[in-house]
Amino acid sequence: MVNQKSLTRKFLPGISVMDRYIFLQLLMPFLFGVGAFSSIVLAIGSLFDLVRQVAEAGLPITVALEVMALKMPLYIGYSFPMSILLAGMMTYGQFSASSEIIAFRSCGISIYRLMLPALVLSIIVTGITFFFNELLVPVANQRATETMTSALKQDKPMFKKDNITYFEYKEVEKDGKKEQVLVRLFYAEKFDGKTMTGLTILDRSQQDKSLSQILNAQSAVWNSNNNTWDFSNGTIYLIAPDASYRNIVTFQHQQLQLPKSPFDLAAPDKNPDDMSIAELMDYADAIRLSGDPKKILAIAIKVQSKLSFPFVCIVFGLIGSAMGIRPQRSGKATNFGVSVLMIFGYYFLMFVCQALGQAEIVSPFLAGWLPTFIGLATGGWLVLQAAK
């Protein structure tokens, strides 16, 4: 049988005996929480729907299991903050119930020092959560969607294929007021996922409120190497300020510096919840020029929410350890129940703040970060109370 001291020294070298002891005590309920909460969220988020698809739509069980496995990174990422909360409450609650807190304090060890391992673990899990949400979840969710679509033989395209229309605006100041002015209209008849055909572009970006050119082309593709559009078999009509034709230019191949936004908006459709922060910011750049304020606001709030979410681990680490360290006689089942209630309360607060952001009552930054700030303030207050 492996000695506990040798095990902690092997995996946590260079750390004091007390820190290794507390860290290992935190690790066990944390891993339990990851398994328990992941299973609960999986059942709510996907399992019931997959069972229905197997029974009603004939989805093969092997495909259902593959989709479930691909969805696991998402649910594991959600479970990390919950598990930190549970680990803090259970570990420090057990220390309190067994009078170990009294023993530690009799040796001159402060409450803040006792909570340090929980804070360190929270910071580590914050980084892991960010890694999951940015690198694993978007790829896995996209693969899960493709697998489901292929297995159910759905013919719905993963991109907008007909009548691609894009309006580009710029903000100008007139009579002391800011206005949105149309500078470019982009239209394509067809899109096969790579090439757009039947294009017409009305460009009035060169002269203020004057149509400067009209471009018609048989086809166009986005050249990612040069960040240009490659048009084929087209004509450019240059328009004079008096609305007369100034020149007509025909071409077989032509590269033009135009925004990539129309291609992005017609490309494979992704759920913003399944995008990484980098993908969301690229998507925001694509729609920003289109002048759709509601969609721009929604994406801005989503970016801030994704940035703030990993820090929920630190919030729950402080709250869980502070609540657990106070004298109590509750058992593990009670701690688990209290954790669930606090988690629902926190996510309800996140929902309310995002709704306030959508209503433009608070800024996108506050809509994403206000729950974290409130949680940190609450955790700090609980720590101060526990230290008294």
**Helix fraction bin:** 55-70%
Number of helices: 11
- Rg over CA atoms, rounded to whole Å, is 28 Å
% residues in beta strands: 15-25%
Category from helices, strands and their pairing: alpha+beta
**Largest beta sheet: what is the strand line-up?**
1-2-3-4-5-6
Biggest sheet architecture: 6 strands, antiparallel
The arrangement of helices and strands along the chain is HHHHHEEEEEEHHHHHH
Describe this protein's structure.
The structure is a single chain. The chain is α+β, with helices and mostly antiparallel strands and 388 residues long. The chain has 2 domains: 226 residues, no CATH class; 106 residues, no CATH class. The protein is built from 11 helices and 6 strands. Strands 1-2-3-4-5-6 form a 6-stranded antiparallel sheet. Helix 5 packs across helix 9. The longest helix has 41 residues. The two termini are 41 Å apart.
Question: How are the elements arranged and paired?
Answer:
Elements: H1 4-11, H2 17-56, H3 61-97, H4 100-106, H5 111-151, E1 162-174, E2 177-191, E3 196-203, E4 213-223, E5 228-239, E6 245-256, H6 261-266, H7 277-288, H8 293-308, H9 312-325, H10 332-358, H11 364-387
Helix pairs in contact: 2-3, 2-5, 3-5, 3-9, 3-10, 5-9, 7-8, 8-11, 9-11, 10-11
In short:
With 388 residues, the protein is α+β, with helices and mostly antiparallel strands. The chain contains eleven helices and six strands.
Question: Which terms would index this structure?
Answer:
388 residues, alpha+beta, 2 domains, six-stranded antiparallel sheet
